[in-house]
Design brief:
There is one protein chain. The protein has strands at residues 17-22, 29-34, 42-49, 52-57, 61-64, 72-81, 93-96. 18% of the residues are buried. Helix content is 0%, strand content 38%. The chain is built from no helices and 7 strands. It is an all-beta fold and 115 residues long.
Length: 115
């Protein structure tokens, strides 16, 4: 009995859309995006920061907590299906982290009376 021929998956997923940043602070932020679509399903998303891949996740959310205060970062996300087909990189999002909080030094009050 002949085995059915399996068609190799060569179609790439669509690019993830609507990349957004929230909870932006001095040292971190959270990214969310709309799902990509693929005829056989998306297996994982790759998160890119400043041209380097920083994460692979199955979720449509990523918390980046390794950032510096008052800096600009460029983020993008790409989808990968189970066959390893990669989407084009979605639209880039430019995010600036917040400045570090300023901590006021306590005022020095001169002592009264003898030591």
């Amino acid at each position: 009995m002949a085995r059915p021929l399996l068609r190799k998956d060569r179609s790439r997923p669509s690019a993830p859309a609507r990349l957004r940043a929230s909870a932006v602070g001095p040292d971190g932020l959270t990214l969310t995006w709309a799902p990509a679509h693929d005829d056989r399903g998306v297996a994982v998303y790759e998160v890119w920061r400043d041209g380097r891949r920083v994460a692979r996740t199955r979720r449509r959310r990523f918390a980046d907590g390794r950032l510096r205060a008052d800096r600009r970062y460029r983020y993008a996300v790409r989808a990968v299906d189970a066959a390893g087909n990669r989407s084009v990189v979605g639209r880039t999002l430019l995010v600036r982290t917040l400045p570090s909080p300023v901590h006021d030094e306590p005022a020095v009050v001169p002592a009264t009376g003898a030591p």
